[in-house]
Structure formats: structure tokens, C-alpha cells
Design brief:
This protein is of the alpha/beta class and 219 residues long. The protein contains ten helices and ten strands. Strand 9 (180-184), helix 9 (189-198) and strand 10 (202-205) form a beta-alpha-beta unit.
């Protein structure tokens, strides 16, 4: 099981140099950054399109060269996956990146190099599911089947889901379907312990030290 430090973990600014330097000290297996592309085709870190602080993606890949960590490239705009992969190849870290976020299903279906690196996001499959889960909605087998259908259609192998989607039924079904599960954003002990016990593929957290402690206790 992998532990990914969410951008801005432990109260560092999201997508900042401070975060990038700090995350290397946490012991987490991976780090996460939000990625956009400007009008000149340059890739930069930002969750929101109008962000003033635009740190180049190269800052991440330079650090990956020395760290051995992996990077979850959470794409905030479609049409950027291939460009991110090409930049990673230039820095020799293509085997240290994965994708979540806005990755087109057609691209996942067509390109093995993208497919094997992508954990498919839940929201395009079940629009509005995030706010529904926040309001107490309990996902159903119909929801799980909709996810499975997309994975079969695209040849995908993993999904990236809000942790409240990870009911006991879902975890059991996805295990039987051989679908890997990445859950976000797990910041409290109770859901962390449940998902560590379930031994899912990845947990993303703003509290990596807590997750590392719980994983070490479980081992």
C-alpha cells in the first residue's frame, strides 16, 4: 500500500516550493501536485486557473530525480497528459509519475503509456458524487457497476475516489473485479485505519505522518 502526501500537506502552501521541499522529508511514498498548461504550452502547478504563483512542473521533476518518490500528477485541464509524460521523459522520471484528474477516456483507451499510469477519477463517471457523499449519500451497487463498465471499456486498472465512496461492499467488489483503489483525502484516524486494514492500493492524505504511523503499526 502506498501513501501519497497531498499538495499542501502539514499546512504548507499548496503547489509551492515550500511544499515540494517539505514533502521530501516526510517519508511518504509519493507526492501530489495540481497541473495546468498556459497559453504558451508551459506546464505549471496550480489548482485554480487564475493563480498568480506559477511554479514550473520542472521544479517537481528535478526533485524526483534525487528522491526516488513517485508523483501523482493531478491534471486540472484535459489535453495535458501526453505533454506531462514527455516532460517527465526529458528528466528521466517517466517511471515515477502517475495521473489522476482530467485524463480523457479516449486517450486512456488508445495509449498504453497513459493507461498504465492513470488512476481514473470517479467524478466523470458519477457527476456530483463528491457533494452527494458529503451529504451522507451511501453509494450503491449501481454506482459500482458504472465504474466497472468504464474500467472495462478503457482497459483501466485503477480508480481514484473520495474516501467516503469506500464502503465495505465497494472494497469487496472492486477486489473481486481486480480494480485497484486509490482514496482521497484521508486526514483522520478512523477512515485511515479502515483503509490501511483493507490494504488498498494508495491513500492520499494531508497528514502523511499519521498515515505512515498507522501503516507501520499494521505491519
Amino acid at each position: 500500500m502506498l501513501i501519497t502526501a497531498h499538495t499542501g500537506c502539514d499546512h504548507t502552501p499548496d503547489n509551492s516550493i515550500e511544499y515540494l521541499d517539505y514533502v521530501l522529508t516526510t517519508g511518504a511514498d509519493g507526492l501530489e501536485v495540481d497541473i495546468r498548461m498556459d497559453s504558451n504550452g508551459s506546464l505549471y502547478l496550480s489548482h485554480d486557473k487564475n493563480s498568480e504563483d506559477r511554479i514550473p512542473l520542472e521544479e517537481v521533476f528535478t526533485r524526483l530525480q534525487k528522491s526516488g518518490m513517485f508523483c501523482n500528477c493531478d491534471l486540472k485541464e484535459s489535453g495535458t497528459a501526453c505533454q506531462v509524460l514527455e516532460l517527465a521523459k526529458r528528466y528521466g522520471v517517466e517511471d515515477q509519475i502517475c495521473f489522476t484528474g482530467d485524463v480523457e477516456f479516449s486517450l486512456i483507451r488508445k495509449e498504453e503509456s497513459i493507461r498504465k499510469r492513470t488512476m481514473i477519477n470517479l467524478q466523470p463517471i458519477l457527476p456530483g458524487i463528491g457533494s452527494q457523499l458529503e451529504s451522507g449519500y451511501i453509494p450503491s451497487e449501481k454506482d459500482f457497476e458504472a465504474v466497472r463498465k468504464v474500467l472495462v471499456d478503457t482497459g483501466g486498472w485503477a480508480v481514484n475516489v473520495p474516501y467516503r465512496f469506500c464502503t465495505d461492499e465497494m472494497l469487496s467488489l472492486f477486489r473481486s473485479w481486480e480494480i485497484a483503489v486509490s482514496a482521497w483525502t484521508v486526514n483522520e484516524e478512523e477512515p485511515a485505519r479502515k483503509l490501511v486494514k483493507a490494504n488498498i492500493y494508495n491513500i492520499t492524505t494531508r497528514n502523511p505522518k499519521m498515515l505512515l504511523r498507522i501503516r507501520n503499526e499494521a505491519q
